[in-house]
Amino acid sequence: MKKLIGALGVIVISAGLFAPAASAQIEKVSTTRTMYDKSYGVKSTITIEYEVDNTNRGEFYKLTKVTGSIKPESLMFITYADVEIGMNGSYYGKVLASQHKKFDISKTLKYTYYPAKTYKWKPVVIPPVVGAVGANIHAKIQRGGSKGSKWTFDHTNVVQK
After folding, report:
1. Are 62 and 43 in contact (CB under 8 A)?
2. Do 160 and 136 touch, CB atoms closer than 8 A?
3. 76: Cβ–Cβ under 8 A, 6 or more apart, which residues?
4. Tens digit of pLDDT for each residue in 109-119?
């Protein structure tokens, strides 16, 4: 009987029925979104790079890189601009406070950030409606001189469910 059980064990193991589980697949994704303000005089581009880790506990999203710029054409001025990067969601069933940072880009009007590396943000599962991974630009625009018309401009590139 012991020989039979031993032989069956060899057959089961050699058939791979008790092999270790395959590792999760990590998908690297990049999305770029370009938008113009209402006057078509200011162009904004946001590129977000993120990883999607498909585990048996859900799809975990990790924001790895955010790049972009905001460019005025002639007679347009950007008096203020900031970019906010962030991730909202849950981490292994625990609700996380929003992981986000805001940066003033008024002087350079361009940016590159590596949130996963620099800020040690945890990957998140994105719940419907409230969760998101991405970036937003907010700018104050003025046409012409100090008496020219003024308005605000917002541009977003996010992943939501």
Report:
1. no
2. no
3. 39, 41, 42, 141, 142, 143
4. 999 999 989 98
